[in-house]
Amino acid sequence: MNKNLTAIERSTYWLEEIVIGLDLCPFARIPYKNGLVRLIENKSILESDQLSYFLDELELLQKSPASIISTTLIVYSKDKNDFDNFNDFVGLCEDMLVESALEEHFQLIAFHPEFQFEGKDINDRSNWVGRAPYSTIHILRNSEIELALESSIDMKEISIRNEERISKMSDAEFNLKFNYFV
After folding, report:
1. Cβ(181)–Cβ(14) under 8 Å?
2. pTM, rounded to two decimals
3. 67-97 pLDDT, tens per residue?
4. Which structural domain, as residue segments, surrounds residue 17?
5. Which helix (H) or strand (E) holds 109?
6. SS3 of the chain: helix, strand, coil, percent, to 5
7. Alpha-carbon distance 176 to 179, whole Å?
8. How far apart (Å, rounded) are the C-alpha atoms in residues 1 and 178?
9. How many structural domains is the chain composed of?
10. What confidence tens digit (pLDDT) does each residue in 2-50 have?
11. How far apart are CA 31 and CA 139, in angstroms?
12. Domain-embedded: residue 134
């Protein structure tokens, strides 16, 4: 992968080739294809600015119907927090959802370059299910999650399938797909 790509270009590659391309999220393909996934970058290193940016995006999502913006991924391209500290930041964002009485409308999923499942070795390939090129918060609409839950797809099965899919990749295939960290 070209080392001169922007954070948005790298994150778009991750979304298209990993999340959608490997079918890690079977619900992402259609909204992305229909231009309903918003992928934005926050370049601030200050937590207060990052939190403000999150709140601004949350406000935009509240004002926009799902037929215009289904979901947003905020890429914190300059964030230098390790995985645990970024999770703490995501916790602050979740607290803001509660304080704003929006937890019934939205939920968050965090991705991070150092994502690690509890109890897994840092080098276990299954961790790559939650790894993105940059610290990223995915803001999902609960109404769309409810629609996904009504489908015949078992959500727990998706997680297990994803971990198995990545773990079973050959070294060559894995290195080719997950080259966005170069």
Report:
1. no
2. 0.92
3. 999 999 999 999 999 999 999 999 999 999 9
4. 7-177
5. strand 106-111
6. 50, 15, 40
7. 6
8. 10
9. 1
10. 778 999 999 999 999 999 999 998 889 899 999 999 999 999 999 999 9
11. 14
12. yes
